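Treating backbone geometry as a discrete language has practical consequences that deserve illustration. The sequence in question and its structure tokens are set out directly beneath this paragraph.
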Amino acid sequence: MPQEYIEIRGARENNLKNVSLRIPKRQITIFTGVSGSGKSSIVFDTIATESQRLLNENFSMFVRNFLPKYSQPEADAIENLSMSIVVDQKRMGGGSHSTVGTVTDINTILRLMFSRIGQPHIGPSNVFGFNDPTGMCPNCNGLGRKLDVDLDKFLDTSKSLKDGAILFPEYAVDSWGWSLLISTGLFDPDKKLSKYTKKEMDDLLHSPPIKVKTKIGAKDINLTFEGIVARFTNKYIKGDLKTKSERTQKAVEPYMMMGPCVMCKGARLSPETLKCKINGYHIADLTAMEIPELLAAVKKIKEPAAEPLVKALLERLQNLVDIGLEYLSLSRETDTLSGGESQRVKVVKHLGSSLTDVIYIFDEPSVGLHPRDVHRMNELLQKLRDKGNTVIVVEHDPDVIKVADHIVDVGPHAGRQGGEIVYEGSYAKLLKADTLTGRHMQHSVPLKESFRTPTGKLPIKNAKVNNLQNVSVNIPTGVLTVVTGVAGSGKSSLINEVFQRQHPEAIVIDQSAVGVSSRSNPATYTGIMDDIRKAFASANKVQASLFSFNSKGACENCQGLGVIYTDLAFLNEAKTPCEICGGKRFKDEVLAYKLNGKSISDVLALNVGQALEFFELKEVVRILQAMRDVGLDYLGLGQPLSTLSGGECQRIKLASELHKQGSIYIMDEPTTGLHMSDVGHLMEVINRLVDTGNTVVVIEHNLHVIKNADWIIDMGPEGGSQGGTVMFEGTPKQLLSAKHSLTSSYLRN
């Protein structure tokens, strides 16, 4: 069969410079290049977007109303596309009702099996679902745990109502809630709560809603009073708190505590459902097992009626093992998974799919994988290809790049210095190519020779969170500590949960999104926008607020957005540049004010590198230099933050936190999204932090970072219940001779 290609001609999305490309179908094509070179612009903004757009056009206008809207990418032609599936690192939400079992559809097969062969027989498969009213535990609504009011934090029983016995702010003295409570006449406001009778306390906390006549001015009004705990429960516990604003969540969370549900003991299902068993296990017993244990239990099910279901179960569970997630259980909630784990769980879902000739697009699938497990990911990519699919991967890890059938290197640099194809071809030829990627593929970093001496230690004692097996370990201060270990070995539990809880003052730099509105940009996020506005104001003797597109200076036609959104009902929401300001976001009179010959709009159009040459303001230059140091000199000052990748978000946080001293920094895989050539720059930044007296703790799999540590804590030996112990602590040099550590063997190579 002749080789077919996806053809792209004249792509101009973002920084692409009229790129034309042929991507071979039914092969693995890997896109490489520095951060910001334009890989994502080709793969996500051109190929994936156009494929989704064409697919959505097959639906009726009515259905299209409910689908995400995609506008046509900037390109002369995109041909031979198939349906695309993007497997990215966005964390899976889904709240408490979504688990590994529900997302991978393995729970569906289990439910069907119990409805067929479970004894005693209790009905159809939906009875075994904790998200179904017929199956869920009536006490906790299928959550398995019940949020309760933490009365110790809610009440101070040594005080009277008048002295502020209710600590929850909604009932602060003289507030509306408090006044209503007093006006019921049911409670003596001067009596200490510790002196209340059982009935009085019950009424105060749990009274059902009752009508109370109250005088407001000259009028009599009927108001409803409800016990304070009952009202809190209805408002914040029965209504899912996660749907409320972040501010409300922060205000309310201290007054709640989570405990296992007394009725189902955490199994989430009704007592009736849990009576139905197979081989002595009810369905919740099976979903709570780690995958290898569950595989063994499923293999023992020999009923002929269940044979096809057992086969389907074994295949899906084996996929979870193959991809390196054997330490998970099906009952694990999806919003507790890391970005890398979320991505791998999504892959499992597609491995069971019988669709072929699909374009699978992966965003750095090696994230969060120990060097030992990268080959598992590679085998999966090959499996998808061998089923007759086109696999396109954006990746920086040399171990993944080498399995490519075809490589496209984008560059030569980032931002405006990128957007071109600098190499296309095989892996073998890439090694000889004179591009940043080609040169760095061969480059090996030497192990650090001398190590800093710690100034003290921060102890972690008897940690038992998640899978930690009573871990006690010291984090040395004033040095760079790298925490290593396979996925699921307990690195995040140790650092992000235990250590961080003990040191709430620590500066955490992770990959969660920074401000997602189209109005925030690198200049506003890092705080230099204020200095820029003041500089414009003093140079032109006018108010600083004129130079904000969120305030007085905004173009009145587009309210400072620079574009006009026209809602065309079922068609794409049309986004057109504002015809008054031409996309510049400011009023004309504001654009007339100049600073060194540039208007505020010209300044926001500069990237970090250009801005460094333009500005002389000390504070601005310091932050811009920090952004250049973390590899972001291609970012536009006015680029909306919502367009940044996870790795870029993490580095912009790092840049804005760089100037603090004597602090603890915690970084979670800071090399995510970084090209090999940029890891060196990142190490310089981290070393500078340590040299100015900070304690830096990094969770990382990247060997370049591990080799540059002063101190290593290696967790293991495996993931899940097979992990959670400290395998090694010491310098990288000592790690070389640690026989039982998995990380050690990769350092030697």
